[in-house]
Amino acid sequence: MTGSSRHDNGNDDLKATVEELRRSNQELRD
Q1: Is this model's pTM higher than 0.90 or not?
Q2: H or E segment to which residue 5 belongs
Q3: Quick one: which of 29, 26, 1 has its CA closest to 15?
Q4: Which residue stretches belong to region Disordered (predicted)?
């Protein structure tokens, strides 16, 4: 993850990470 020079996109990166975590949890449940 590279975002040291773009702190404005910090929230976007977090959202993307959360989305990935949600998908992983869904797969684990199945």
Answers
A1: no
A2: none
A3: 1
A4: 1-30
